[in-house]
Design brief:
With 398 residues, the chain is α/β, with parallel strands linked by helices. 41% of the residues lie in helices and 16% in strands. The longest helix has 21 residues.
Length: 398
């Protein structure tokens, strides 16, 4: 089993809180992780119709059958349990008593916030990170934009192959054909999760909406244009976009709010979190197609952003990421907040460095009035070095 970076955080918070909740996209490895981290806990999956019926009809009796700590998987399928869980932990405040996991973040988090606030640690597990697949530690966030990684281990995979396959664990664990697996994954998501939970009536139109979003990956979100192209109302488009975001399929990168004396862009940028799923939705059918595809740059941006998100989430941290763009066209792809510092990150899919790659970073340093402020370039090449005091990271170092 590939070691997950979140495992140590999960075990630690289970010694501090009576309830630990683990969310993330479907098939990101949540069940495997919690069962490996807590092998002595009892386990029950609410996907089982009989167990779910028991939990819904007799919540007190269902929970009473567990004498010790228990893992409750896909717990959002029986939301009535949360109030009973609250009563139990209020009377017996035992650390690690309940480990809850679920894929449907928009239901699970609503139930947690209503019933378990203050009693529960919340963690998020995304699919494999680059560093997890390579069996090493990621670049420490405290050193990003300042130092080069000590280890210089060549990647085991070609970049195009990796982006095309994506990072869902089952593809890598079972050596599955990514197109076939992702087709089934997407179909299951649309036909089951969306229809069952959100009452989306027109599944075909929703599927067209998802593919239109894929075509806008890495772009500023224009909700009106997206709604018009899909033939739905602005309100429907906003609701569907929220479904995709809370399902961990997309991430809306918000604009940075600091005012540098210029009018700033206020719309978020839309990114898919898994490059394999993005390639599938864009009908890219092989790594060879990806190498010369017009969306290659935006797919690479998704890869870098998702790696930065995993670096945060898998350490139990909430990501504090933005982009910055002013009305004159100056732009920083990602701004990472680290305490009082801001780290500017430029992303380029090219394998060869050009001088103008650093124009945005130079401008950013000028705005801040600090030529030594942390900044970095992540690119599609293999060398890692410093340029004008700024780390240049090969994609494989993330």
């Amino acid at each position: 089993m590939i070691k997950r970076a979140l495992a140590s955080v999960l075990k630690r918070v289970a010694t501090q809180y009576p309830i630990v909740t683990l969310t993330g996209p479907r098939q990101s490895g949540k069940t495997t992780l919690v069962r490996a981290a807590f092998p002595k806990h009892e386990y029950a999956s609410l996907e089982d119709p009989d167990l779910r019926r028991f939990a819904l009809e007799d919540a007190r009796g269902f929970l009473g059958q567990f004498e010790g700590p228990v893992i409750l998987d896909e717990v959002q399928r029986a939301p009535e349990l949360f109030s009973y869980i609250q009563t139990i932990v209020d009377s017996t405040d035992t650390a690690g008593r309940f480990i809850l996991s679920g894929s449907r973040n928009f239901l699970l988090m609503a139930s947690v916030s209503q019933s378990l606030a203050g009693r529960c640690a919340i963690l998020h597990l995304l699919p494999f990170s680059m560093s997890e697949l390579e069996g090493r530690n990621p670049i420490p966030l405290s050193k990003f934009g300042r130092d080069l990684p000590r280890e210089k281990i060549p990647p085991r995979r070609d970049l195009a192959d990796l982006l095309f396959d994506g990072f869902y664990p089952r593809i890598h664990d079972k050596k599955l054909d990514p197109i076939r697996w992702l087709a089934g994954y997407y179909s299951t998501y649309v036909e089951r999760d969306v229809r069952d939970i959100t009452n989306v009536g027109d599944i075909e139109t929703f599927g067209r909406f998802v593919r239109l979003c894929a075509g806008r990956n890495g772009q500023l979100l224009n909700l009106t244009s997206l709604a018009n192209d899909c033939g739905v109302t602005h309100t429907t488009a906003r609701r569907w976009l929220s479904i995709l975001e809370t399902s961990f399929l997309i991430y809306l990168l918000r604009p940075h709010h600091r005012n540098f004396g210029k009018r700033l862009i206020r719309s978020p940028k839309l990114y898919f979190l898994d490059t394999g799923l993005l390639c599938y939705l864009l009908q890219i059918r092989s790594p060879a197609d990806l190498r010369h595809h017009g969306y290659r740059g935006s797919i690479f941006e998704s890869f870098v952003l998702s790696e930065l998100l995993k670096n945060h989430y898998h350490q139990g941290k909430e990501p504090d990421l933005y982009f910055w763009r002013d009305s004159s066209g100056h732009e920083i792809d990602v701004v990472i907040h680290q305490g009082q510092e801001m780290i500017a990150v430029e992303i380029k899919s090219a394998q060869t460095i050009a001088s103008d790659f650093f124009d945005g970073l130079r401008y950013w340093r000028t705005l801040l009035g600090n030529p030594a402020t942390p900044a970095a370039l992540v690119y599609g090449g293999d060398r890692t070095f410093k340029h004008e005091g700024m780390p240049v990271y090969a994609w494989s170092t993330l």
